[in-house]
Amino acid sequence: MCSGWLVKKRCWMLVFLVFFVGVVDARADIYLTDNLVLAGFFRHAMAVSMGVMNPYNKYAGTQRHNNWLNLSRSTFQTELTYMPTDIFRFYTRTRVVYDQTDMLDDHLHEYDHFAMPGGVRYGGYLMSGRDDNIAAEIWELYADFYLGDLWLRTGKQIVSWGEMVGIQIMDIINPLDLSWHNIYEIEEYENIKIPEWMIRASYSIETGVPWLTDLYIEGFFNPGDTSPTWNPEPGSPYAKTLVQSSLKDTHYDRRGDEEWGLRLGGKIDQFGWTLNYLYLYTDDGQPNYKRPPGPPFFGTLETKWPQINVYGITLNYAWDQPLNTSATFEANYIPNMPWQDAHVPYPHIRETDEWNWALLLMTKQFLLPPGYDPLNIKLQYAQKIVENHNDVKWIPGPLSRSNSVEKISRDSITLILTQDFLHRQIETEFRCTWMPDGSYQIKPRLGFYPGDKWRFDLYAMWQGGSAYSGDPAHGVYGNPNTQAYFYWLDEVYARITYQF
User: What is the pTM of this model?
Assistant: First the structure.
């Protein structure tokens, strides 16, 4: 089974992970010293395909038969916290990831499980080693300083300024690692945010008036550790293009592009609010053909990540009993969002105004007999509004059903019902997203948590609908804004976690 040097290395890495978890379990010592705390988990996740073969792999020639396995990935993660004083804290999160998907399913060709922008992974200077199936790296590394009303964090970190369900409106500071899965479950979503080197600070302001409380100003500065989104490579069950990722483009490296943001927040009685401004670069590259004005009319094709200005607002309000309900409104306005120009057949960037907003209602209601936990209900409505939508399109190529942009190009309604049983040892969830343009996604979940150490999660995911899903056989993509675009990714997803 372990013939060959590369296979032996992979097997020994797996043996090492299992052994190390066993050592941690036997030791059961979380506080290494009074000031040094160790936490973490060992996890294995597996997704079994319930859909058809990936059409983009099929017509790109990277797959011939339908795969039965979408994912098999083991993750060993440690979190080390050192706090010698009340004003200083050091934190690091290190992880080793071993992906066996293409080794277990003969119908999948070998592919790189870890994104490699320009041949060198962004953040790879903290990666101790990798191959196509194994990666070890320091994922987060930062220091906190608590100086009275001033809080400062410096290092490789994640900044989250949004709280919507399965949709990014203000939570767009860190790019996402979409190279290996896309179920958008809450815990997984936090683990696919790509940390970047930043300085972040928050200062609490005394108002002196009783009706205005918790006033603060917060900001971050990224001196140039910017990264694009990591997308799946061709050959992956989650690949969504026919060609290699634009991350292979080494001539238009984003490193060095400074990003920063500011927000002012506070509370007026039970009403919470924030005002935000972000100076960012887009996470997804846009192809752009630069055509000379005169002969010989031969231009150059390049990938760009244009700079954007994001103006945002969040509003929160909570009602006490008997309503026991909270409402969250989140919106942004981007006056220079890059799209593809609908008036030319070749790749060309055109900017237009874009609005994104969502309203989330959350409540807990006791619907079962006394003794049971309440039912958690979340209902969210979201929209994307594109000004001058007739002038832009989603992707390069002739204007068609697959890349035309409607003025309201994303309408989605999401319902999430969560019910706990047996003192929260069993958790059930039903989640459904419906888009009026003709697409849906359904995700039920069953969780079993018998104690503080073990977690067992079982998901299913179905998506599809009547929205145009493209014609990959002739190089025509589906509409990337609908759930129907990923119609082949129906799956059952299981996850086992031991945490310490």
Answer: 0.87
